[in-house]
Amino acid sequence: MKPWEGYMEPFRIFGNLYFVGTRFVSSHIVDTGDGLILIDAQYPQTVYLLLENIRKVGLDPYDIKYILISHGHYDHLGGARALTELIGCKTILGRPDKDYANGTVDLTWAKELGHEYFEMFEPDILIDDGDIVELGNTKIRCVSTPGHTPGVMSFFFDVTDGERTYTAAMFGGAGMNSMRLPFLDAYGLPHSLRDDFLNSIEKVRNEKVDILIGNHPGDVDTAGKYARIKAGESDAFIDTTALDRRLAYIRKQFDEMVEKGL
Questions:
Q1: What mean pLDDT do residues 165-186 have?
Q2: Where are the domains of the chain?
Q3: Which residue blocks in 102-156 are alpha helix, DSSP H?
Q4: Does CATH number 3.40.50.150 belong to domain 8-259?
Q5: How far is CA 35 from CA 11, 14, 209, in A?
Q6: How far is CA 83 from CA 19, 24, 87, in A?
Q7: Predicted confidence band at 124 (pLDDT cuts at 50, 70, 90)?
Q8: Which end of the chain is least crowded, N or C, by CB within 10 Å?
């Protein structure tokens, strides 16, 4: 996979929430009225696509105040250092993934993705379960949902078009790759991360969510929903059942992994 070949057209999801990522990795912008919050920073190799997409939806990348990072894997935090040095914004990351970001531990999944992680940085703000990231008219509630990494954070926040307000959410990391036994054993990680993951699913199961976004487009059929928006269905992302279906799917993936002895 060549990340820079993954261009995807940016668009407004609803109100002050935008998709500005690529086909491989999602990035989202929340326009708070007092600056922008960027959710996930892409690969270093796709920062230029991210900047271009932010401009294409009519926003200014230099208005980014915070980069809110879902977890410490290369495809989500790799571009953070370049962005902070260019823009001067602050990075926010779940506390347990601090050493992923600063390179103390070699667990960013960069090698597995065919890259070398040398864009290390110290997160400006470390967050814990229940912390609120607030800027302008937006409050993002951060919920610890470990498993995929120890520091995965899921996000819950309101978005508005001025007349209607909905609750948007992202489940912060659900890939089975970093919970397989060979990976855990190779890096001396506890098998209990798998139990943590199951607990994370249950922890957010009863959250009331209207708009579910993913940290990869395939998580929520981002491209398909955008096609529906272009066809005139402006509320394509509004679906109060999306979180339940997403959680059911990742639980099924987990059970299949366990059945295969992975």
A1: 97
A2: 8-259
A3: none
A4: no
A5: 18, 17, 24
A6: 17, 19, 6
A7: very high
A8: N
Percent pLDDT > 90 in the chain is 98
Mean pLDDT of the chain: 97
Residues 181-184: contacts with CB within 8 Å, 24+ apart? 181/261, 181/262, 182/262
Average pLDDT over residues 157-184: 96
- Structural tokens at position 106: 């070699």
- Return the beta strands (E) in the chain as ranges: 11-14, 17-19, 28-31, 36-39, 64-68, 90-94, 125-127, 132-135, 138-144, 153-160, 165-170, 211-213
Helix ranges, the chain (H): 47-56, 74-77, 80-87, 98-101, 181-186, 192-204, 217-220, 222-230, 242-259
Residues listed for the chain: 262
The pTM score is 0.97
Work out whether strand 90-94 and strand 125-127 pair parallel, antiparallel, or are unpaired. Answer: parallel
The whole-angstrom separation of Cα 7 and Cα 193 is 33
CA distance 102 to 90: 15
Residue 258: pLDDT band with limits 50, 70, 90: very high
pLDDT greater than 90 at residue 86: yes
**What is the C-alpha R_g of the chain?**
17
> What is the pLDDT at residue 1?
73
Structure tokens, 24: 């491989």
Amino acid at 48: Y
Using 50, 70 and 90 to split pLDDT, how confident is the model at 182? very high
Residue with tokens 């970093």: 178
Q: Residue 19 corresponds to which amino acid?
A: F
